[in-house]
Amino acid sequence: MRTVTSEPTAADRPVRPSPDRRYPRRPRLARLYAPLLAFVITAGAFCASWAARGTFPFGNTGRAINDQANQYVPFHRALWDLVHGQAAGDVLFSWRSGFGQQFLSDYHTYLGNPFSWLAVLVPRAHVDLAVFAITPVTMGTAAAVMAVYLGKLHPGPWWQRGVLGACYGLCGWALSDASYIPMWLWGLVAFPLLGIAVEWCLEERRWPGVALFVALAWFGNFYTAMMATMAACVLLAVRLGTVGLTGRQRLGALWRAATATGTGILLTLPLLLPSFLSSGAAQPTQAGSFAPVRTEIFLAGMLPATHLWGGRPRLYVASLGLILAGSFVLNTAVARRTRLVWAAATVLVAASFQFPPTQYLWHGLAVPNGNPYREAFVFSGMVVVLAWLSLANRPRPLHLALTAGLLVAATFVLRHTNDFGGWTWPAVLGGGAVSLLALVLLSLGGKRRYLIPLAAALMVGVVFAESTAAAVNADARRSRERWAKPVPTSNRSITAHEEAVRRADGWPAYRTDSGAPQTSYNDALALGAQGPQYYSSYLPEATYQALEPLGYGFKNDGRTFFGADNPVLDAVFSIGARVHPGPAKDTWTATRFPAPPLVTVRGAAFTSPNPADSVYARQENVLGAAVYRVPRTVRGGSAAEQTYTAQCTPGSEAYWFSPALYGTLASGGTERPLEDRMTGVLKLGPVPADGTVAVTVKTRTQDATAGEHPIGCLDRAALDARIRTLAETGASAVRPTGHGIEATLPAPGTAATAVLATTDIPGWRCTVDGEPAAPASFHGLLSLSLAPGARHLACTFTPKGLIPGLAGPALALLALATTTLLPHLRRRLRRREA
C-alpha cells in the first residue's frame, strides 16, 4: 500500500500516522476510549442541563419545544404505529394525515436520524421520552465520531481527543439551534463522519466505506447532509493543500471522493428523489430574503455560552476549544503552510455565512426558512480541528495565555452587543481560567507526570460544567420566546384523549376526528385518528387547494391544517365520530353520528343555489345537495367592534366564517377567539325562535371585515337526507390497503362519478373493473369516471420519483460489488498464475 508523505517538517504528520514512542499503538479495545469519553461528557452534560432546569423527565417542566411537540413526537408515534402494525397506511402513505397523504418524504425528513428507531423500542405512551433521548444520544455520537476523526488527522492521547470531541458535540449550534430537532442533529454526526471519509480518500483506502459513509450521512437528513458534504469538500481542499502529494495522487483522491460521493447519494435516491419532488409539489411559503446580522453580533455568537435571540448565529464551542484554536496560528510546532491553510479555510467558512450568495449555496440554493445560520456546526467543527492540531503539537503556555487574554478582551469589547449573554462572562473568566490552568499543567506534565491526571480532570470538568451551564442558559433564554414555550407531550389528559379516540375508532367504515383543543398540529398522527390535522413541509399544494375553500383553518402559509366541527364537512370526508372534552377535568368523550362511506357515487354535477363566493356554497358543491341558507347579512358598529345580523329559519344551526378577522366573537351569550385563517368555520348554535342571528366581533385587524356572507344556516334534515342517499348509493365495501384503496360499488345504471374522500394529490393510479382509469379532481377530491355497470375500483398511491429512484441503489450496489470483489478476483488470478 502506498504511503503518502507530508511536508518535510515534524509538524504535519503523515496521512496514515505510524506509531512512535510518544503514541504507541494501542489494542483495538483501547481505541474506543476516546469516543467513549467524548460520548459520556457530551450526553452527560446535556442531561445535566435538563436536570438543572427541572425539565421532563427530571422534573415537571415541559420538554417539547415548537416543532418537537407539533411534528417530531407525532411522527415518531406514527413510526411506532407503523412498526407495530397499528398504522392506517404504510411507509409510502398514511391515512391518518390530512385525509390521506404521502408518508415517505415525511419519513426521510423527520425520521431519518437512525436513532429515531429508539422510539419503537418503548411503549407508545413513552415515545416522547425516546424522542427527547435522541438528542443526547446523537450529540454524544457526533462527539465520539469527531474524537475518531481527530485521531485520523494527528496522533495524540485518547483522553485529549475525547475532551475536544465533546467540545464539538456541545457546540453552540447543537445546544441552541438543533437540540430539539432530531433529524438536524444527524448533520452534527455527518461532518466528522465525512471527514473520516476524506482521510480514506487521501490514503487510497476503503472506497466502499467512503460511499457507505456518504449514504449514512444522506439517509439521516439530506438538508444538513448537504451542508456536511460541502464542508467535507472544504476539508478535502485543505488536506490536499497541506499534505505532501504528487499531482497524480491529488487527482486520484479527487476522483475517489467524487465517485464515492455520487455512489453514496445514489444509494439514498429512493428517499431523496421523492422528497425533492414532494417539496416541489408542496404548498409554497412566503420566502424571505437573507439579511446578515451585524458584524459585532456575528462575532458575539462565537463567545462561549452565548445564546443570541432569534435567527442569529450560534458559533461557539467551550472556552477550552477557543483558547486552543486561537493558539493554533501561533504554534510554531505546526508547519507554516498548515497553519496558513487551515486558518484561512476557517475564516473563509465563517465569512461565507455572512455573504448572501454563499449562504444560499450552503442552504441548497434556497432562502433559509427560519434561522438562516443552520450550517453553523461546520464552523464549530473546524474550530475544534484547529484546537486539536494545536494541542497535539504542544502549544506554549505563553501562546495559550495570550489567546486567553484576547478572548477576555474580545468579550469586553462585545459586552454591549444586543442580547449579550448573561452566562458569557462566567464562561470566559471562570471556564477560561480553568482551561488555561489545565493546559499549563499539561505542558508541565512532561517533567512532572503526576500533573497530567490533574490536567485531564480539569479539562474534562471544565468542558462538562461550562457546557452544562451553556445548555441551561440556552434553554432558559429560548423558553422566554413565545414560539419556544415548552408544552407537554404526555399527561393524563393526552392519555385520556388517545383512549377516547381508540374507543370511537371505526376505520375504515368511517373516520374519527380527534377534535379540539389540539395537543399538537399533528394530532391525527399522535392520537391515532384520521382527521384533517396535518403539519408538514410536504403538505401538497393540491391538498391546500382542496381544503382551504371548504373552510378548514390553516397556518404556516397553508402547510398546517386544523379540524372543523362542521357536519357538512364531516359528511364530505366520511367523519363518523368526534372526540371532545368530557365534563370532568382531563377526561374526553366521543360522539358518533352517521357518515357516508369513504367512496361515494355521484350523478349529475350539482351547483349550489347560494352565493358562489361563500364557503357554504363551496361545501354544498362538494356534498352535492343544498343544505344551507345563506342570508343577507347586515354589518354595523365600528371598525374595532363590528356587529353582524341575519335572519334564518328558527331551529336551524348557524355557522360563521371570517378568515380575515382576528379578535373575539360573541354570539348567543358566549365568546370565543377568532384567529383569522386559523379558525375556520365556527358553529354558533341553534337559531332562536325569532330567527335573528346576532354576532359581535371585537377585532384588532385594521380595515378588515367578515365579508358579504359570513353566516350560513344549516338545515339538518336536508343534510341527514343527503347522508342517507350517499350511504345507500356509495360503496358497499371499502378496503384501504397500505398505500391504496379498493371499493365494491352498487352497479350504476348510468354513467356516474366515484368520489374518494381524499385529496387529489400527485401519485394516484387507478383501475375500474381491472381497466386503467385516469383519476380526476372533484372539487379537489380524488374521483373516477364510472361506466354503467361498473362494480369495482382500486387506487394505488406511489410517490413521484420512487420508481426511477430505485435505479439509483441498483447502480450504486453494482459499483460497490464491483470495487469490492474485483481486487479479490485479481489476487486469486495472480495466485493461480504464480
Task: Describe it.
The chain has 834 residues and is of the alpha+beta class. The protein folds into four domains: 28-65 and 135-281 and 297-480, no CATH class; 492-590, no CATH class; 628-714; 730-799, Immunoglobulin-like (Sandwich), CATH 2.60.40. 47% of the residues lie in helices and 14% in strands. The protein has 27 helices and 26 strands. A five-stranded antiparallel sheet has the order 11-12-17-14-15, with no helix packed on it. Strands 19-20-26-22-23 form a five-stranded antiparallel sheet, with no helix packed on it. A hairpin with a 3-residue loop joins strand 11 (634-637) and strand 12. Helix 4 runs parallel beside helix 7. The two termini are 21 Å apart. The model is unreliable at 1-11 and 13-23 (pLDDT under 50).
Instruction: Provide the residue-averaged pLDDT.
Output: 91
The helix content, as a percent range, equals 40-55%
**Number of domain modules:** 4
Please report which band the strand proportion falls in: under 5%, 5-15%, 15-25%, 25-35%, 35-45% or over 45%: 5-15%
| Tally of individual helices | 27
Structural class: alpha+beta
Number of beta-strand segments: 26
In angstroms, what is the radius of gyration? 31 Å
Query: What overall form do the CA principal axes indicate?
Result: globular
User: What distance separates the N and C termini?
Assistant: 21 Å
Low-confidence residue ranges: 1-11, 13-23
**Biggest sheet, in brief?**
5 strands, antiparallel
> Strand sequence of the main sheet, in spatial order?
11-12-17-14-15
